Amino acid sequence: MNFLELVQNRKSVRIYLDSPVETEKISRCLEAARLAPSACNSQPWEFIVVTRPEQVARMASLSKEPLSGLNKWVDQAPVFIAVAAKKPNLTSQIGAAIHNRPYWLMDVGMAAEHFCLQAVEEGLGTCMLGWFDEKKVKALLDIPRKDRVVLLITLGYPRDPDVSTKTRKPLGSMSRFT
Fold first, then answer.
1. Residue 66 falls inside a structural domain
2. Tell me: the pLDDT tens digits for 57-75?
């Protein structure tokens, strides 16, 4: 598929098949993330792949908000990826401080989206989660205290690989030429 088709097919998947995900496919997604650009080539990320059923279940429980029902679907995700932000290199830190821009956060976002786009190419679905108990996730996965877990990604085979049209703002309302 061409790039626009790939982007059209990348959606947040919340219903997965009860099927394991092949390590080779996960590795290709990780390779795509590894190749993402970053400020000053800092590469301030680590992707922690969670596949053991007991850890997956714990990750799911740390991703739900019981009162609102937020993320109630995560129990059926077969794989979780914790995306941790590492301390960027000095050049990136200086540039971020001078321009008051969190380059590290943009870098991690690009790497995460590369991961998700490769997942589509592999016939997999993903959903990025921002709601989770970071402190408990870090403890579960033995992530150093100085690092931040900025998002989780669920990964698996979509139960319904629907490729319907996305609802998005019109091009003219989100862009302009000057």
1. yes
2. 999 999 998 788 899 999 9
